Amino acid sequence: MITETTEVRSILTRTTGYLRTVCSHSLQPYRGCPFGASLCGVGCYVRHNVYVTQGRDWGSFLEVRANAAEAYRKAFDRERRWARERQEGFVIFLSSATEPFPPGEARHGVTRSVLSAMLDQPPDGLIVQTHSHHVAGALDLLRPLAQRCDLRVHVSIETDRDRLPGLPPPASSVERRFAAAASLKGAGLRVVITVSPLLPIADPEAFFARVAGAADAVVLDHFIGGDGSALGARTLKTALPTAMAAVAPGSIELAYRDRMAAVAERFLPGRVGVGPDGFAGRWVASAQKTRRLDAERGAPEGIALPREPADF
Length: 312
Ligand code: SF4
Hints:
The chain is of the alpha/beta class and 312 residues long. Helix content is 40%, strand content 15%. Bound molecules: iron/sulfur cluster.
């Protein structure tokens, strides 16, 4: 992998598209992602973004944004004012197009420097989104930050399997990510498991029971509707759907997400979110909507009916 150090003029990106109702800004301490050649990289929507890749293979490069913290400090007043005038506060998603805790973070420390800057100049809300168990190593910064802003740590665990046929393993094992989530939750942080994109789950009951023990809420997202293209067209061009279908043919249909959401709801009642609503922390609203839809369809109290795409 080619690693280079760069400087950026701005680090806070005003959100559009999928994240528009989730947060006011995204922040990428790195450009590129070392996890691009691992399991999550196969279906990663960023690999299709030519602005980011500039023709390079996804997972083959990492740009270290050495002045990210300085850029954050400089932009803080202006971007917070903009966000508060237009949105529901200055809420940052860290990160949507890279892994904030890649292996090199121990050496480069860019994410840590940004979190330190946020301790001095906190946003209104911060969503830390990671595929790495190394997030637990930032507890010394995350815990005081949780006192200064509305902080959620999102740990992506897309399935209970460490391998799908023909695909590379995850960069951080399922076990290690569950352990990181549990340790952060045990330390008093609000933790959300993001099952995104949802991959075939071998034992849904055991998986969501485990999620309920390691996190405060869960978010499910399917590549259909979740990869930024109509009907999952981007992901359908990758090896991911074939591997998913080889394990569980129904998992490449949107109805699979709805079946898994119904299982999740039994273990985390009122704490299941779907798609952007879930990423925004609107899981209670999602659950209420789910129950209303069930009632309208004549389901007995406490029984979840299979969802339809239009429900979300
Ligand atoms: S960690 Fe995130 S940005 Fe990196 S390859 Fe995986 S999904 Fe993409």
